[in-house]
Amino acid sequence: MAQNISLEELVLGYCRQVDGLVEPPAYGAYEVLLPDEIAARWGQPAHQSMAFIPDTGNAPYIHFGHNLVETIVDELRAQTANGRFFINNVRPEKPKLYEVIEKAFALPNAKMFAIPAAKETIGLHHYARFNFKVSLIADEKRELILPLWMDLQGGFSVKPADIERLAILDTENSFPQTAPAALSWSNEPPLSPRALAALLERARLSAAFELGETLDSLQKRLSRFLELDRARLNDYYDDLRKDTRRRLEKAEDDRRPALEAKLATVESERQSKLADVEQKYHLRIQLELVNLAIIAQPKLDLMVEIRKRGVTVKRRISWDPLLHAVDGLACDSCGRAGHTLFLCENGHLAHAECLAPQCVDCKRTFCQKCAGEVQSCVVCERPVCAHSLIKCKECGRGTCQEHTGQCHAEAGQPRKISSQEVASVTEATVGAVKPAAEAGKGAKSMPPVKRETPKARTLSKIPEKPRPEVTGEWLEVYSNPADNVITAYVMVKKREIATREWSMGDEGVEVRCWCEKKDCREGGLVYYPAAADKLAAQVTKIIEKFAEEYAVPVKKIRFFHIRQNQPFDEPKLKIPASWKEPEMLERAQAGFEALRKRNLGF
């Protein structure tokens, strides 16, 4: 936003900007020494005195309309508001880069591998700072300036706090021989107009995330005002309608048509006024680009391979020598960067919240971009992927393995599952366990759901042979406040054999599991969250239970807390702070109770 400055600040400030020397004032006058080329360009002497107060000795009085002022203003107007800068105060080198990268990422359903032929390269990366003027228009107009930093090579938004704090911006490049790194999200050359235009559209989409709290508070305010105006209008027109009806009941025949027409008019006006009120409080967002700054910085790049059974992708990962951290990878679904990502069956990387529902039979993982490959069983309505969906030859409907042949069991229609059966089926995928410590006096009236496997549930027509017991050597637990998740890995010889993740959702502590068990009892489970002061102890016991499944002693559980994308050892579990927020905790506990009632058929 514009800032008012004095004429003195304008003139002396610009003289300093063009490398002129300005001496402190003596007797109200400044001594200024301009570079020879600047003095020649302005047609002014290199050394001169300036006074900004009339009648100050022999020093010339600088005022609005003075030749020097007009020259400076014309030169400022000719300059563009955009700029290009360089970050040179870095050393693009990092010993054992692959090991650092491997520790920085959590891939719950995949594994990262080094490419033997891949070499570390130095590439010139770019940040783009878009300054937007945001107009929030509803019953009143509110304007603000929103700076958005985008990683040009990665195509995602970044947090500028550390960059602005550590970076020294120069106008000359100290790494002229370093070639710009290619874009990972486009085939366009870096800094080309088409690449910047596409990045601008991504920045516009990211603005919604940056304005999240502002929009939420404003939307709540508008919703409240809309509710009050609706109530006022309805009360007003209800009174008119009631009065007109009363008069209509007592009216003579010749007056009834006019009163009936008035009754219709009252209702028509009501709908018109309600529509006007909704339009009045409808929030509209306008983004106007003010200016752009391109900041170049060398980074260290390394190509790695991420793969799981049947799926392999390659990604370039960068080490930022300014922040001393590994850059995140962009989610192929939402475009935001992250360090905890899942590998989709079609080769996409995605956050946990950007995944499609997991198949109940084969447990394949698909992202939201591939959600079309996940359908629903016509009997139980649970998600089943295209690979596991069983198409009936008679009716053509699709079911999961458990309900094969039941798609036309009731007069040609899918069998209807009773509420008790729905609760039994849901228990295996979304169970409900309330800890004894949280069971209060009301526990007797609503007993917890039993964790026994329902008899109606069958694995397949031909029972599988029991799998041999799998044991681990140690357990690594990572608490990531940025993603609000806790992830545990069962390790054997520096590789994970099972992964389990806990996150605080709207229905409690949700569990996701990737292990060798076909029917994992924990996968999809939801735990009732304990009170804030007991939540860490509750999750610790759940993690110890996970270690017990793989015969890992409690003393071999290692806890890590991720800060600035780096894991740090901790003596005990530190849960994300957002889990303890009263609003989130209260919502999760209420959601759990609602879930349990649905499972019980209430």
Q: How many domains make up the coordinates?
A: 4
N/C terminus separation: 56 Å
Give the helix level as a range of percent.
25-40%
Largest sheet, if any? 9 strands, mixed
Low-confidence runs of at least 5 consecutive residues: 425-468
Range of strand content: 25-35%
Structural class: alpha+beta
Estimate the mean pLDDT confidence: 85
Task: Give a count of the beta strands, DSSP E runs of length 2 or more.
Answer: 28
Radius of gyration: 33 Å
- The gross shape turns out to be flat
Please give the count of helices.
11
Give an overview of the whole structure.
The chain folds into 4 domains: 7-79; 85-209 and 287-340, no CATH class; 356-417, no CATH class; 432-599, no CATH class. The protein contains 11 helices and 28 strands. The chain is an alpha+beta fold and 602 residues long. Strands 4, 5, 6, 7, 8, 9, 10, 11 and 12 form a 9-stranded mixed β-sheet that branches. Strands 21-26-25-24-23-22-27-28 form an 8-stranded mixed β-sheet. The chain has a 3-stranded antiparallel β-sheet with strand order 1-2-3, with helices on one face. The two termini are 56 Å apart. Helix 7 (212-250) runs antiparallel to helix 8.
